[in-house]
Amino acid sequence: MSRSVPWFLVALCFALGVASRSISDSFPVFVPALQQAFTASRSAVTVVYSFALLVGGTAAPIAGWIVDRFGLRALTVTGMSAAAIATFSAFHATELWQLYLGLGVVMGFGSASLSGVLSSSVLGRWFPSHRLGVALAVAWSASGVGAIIILPLAERIIVTSGWREAYFVFSCISAAFIPVLLFLPWRRIAGGAPGLARHHGSAAGGMTVGEAVRDWPFWALTFSFGFTSLGIFALAPQAMVYLLERGIEGAYAARALAVAGFLTPLGMVGFSWLSDRGGRKLAAILAYASSIVGVGMLALVRGPQDDLWLWLYVLLFGGSMGSRGPMISTLATLRYRGPNFGRIYGLISMGMGTGGFLGAWIGGLLHDLTGGYGVVMIFSACSLALAATSLGAEAGARERLSR
């Protein structure tokens, strides 16, 4: 077996994530142009992205069923076709509801098919437990690293040619992957590395879905995904407005948040490296502690003079924001890999999508009810603390079993 095959598959998962999730996450750049084009309110336009987040999480069991029943080729081609169709439909959209359906529902399903379910199903067959976390972290970092390329590209095309042309270009990018995916040697890829393939190929090699949902770790991982997303998305969408209201100059605030976005994939890989080196519980606790302290640093930003607190928030919250996804995926893969893994992991991933949708809504609601951000920050920190308790307990149990 060529040693390059596992990392080629990491690169493939990364590229598919850029061509789907990163394109979906570029939506905020389109918001002003879409508001003007459809003469719609800000909330009416941004709910498109809320649908994408919700479907991206809740459709994961469907993606898992596809990979378990029909295989990796079917999952990747279906997911990339959904991304291409969604962006092409946006190019032709004349009514706002068409964006809800295309960029919300269809694009959300494409993201669900080409993110956690795919990377865990593929890489879990090729990497042993002590290297799996970093491999998954690199694949998960596609959304953050891809944004560095996709967001400026979207902005440039919108300014020079218009938002419709930007979505047409993105549709072409997604569609270009489909012929490649059709002819990849998926049977060989599904075979996995010697010693790991047997976990996937044998009907006796893993839990059934029914056994998994009666297994406490299943719920611990689901709750970890859900509470983490609640904590992150209750606060992150409002960070820019918060800084502006504190007198931070817009361009400076945007640069700070851009640095936070750049640190996110680095944190994914760094915390996963620590986790793989035998410190899964320690890595989880440090990641959540960084996020919670980061929330506190943001609360201390009261004006333009508070540069120290702002950049500590960027370092701590930005550097840890995406780190729990690969950790949870690694623990799920190690416990449940087998012929039913796709469906089991898909059900666990529903916590992430539901938590993200509810977190963004609850955060906005708490701000509207209180007229400030204090309660929002307390809610965010408490949600992250609950997630830390759940994930830390499961990570500790896994460490005891491996001794």
From TrEMBL:
Protein name: Cyanate permease
Membrane-traversing stretches: 48-67, 74-93, 99-120, 132-154, 166-184, 216-236, 256-275, 282-302, 308-332, 344-366, 372-393
Originating species: Enhydrobacter aerosaccus
Domain Major facilitator superfamily (MFS) profile: 5-398
Pfam family, one: MFS_1
CDD domains: MFS_YcxA_like
InterPro entries named among the record's database cross-references: MFS (IPR011701), MFS_dom (IPR020846), MFS_trans_sf (IPR036259), Proton-linked_MCT (IPR050327)
First and last residue of the signal peptide: none
Transmembrane helix is among the record's keywords: yes
Domain of life: Bacteria
Keywords: Membrane, Transmembrane, Transmembrane helix
GO MF term set: transmembrane transporter activity
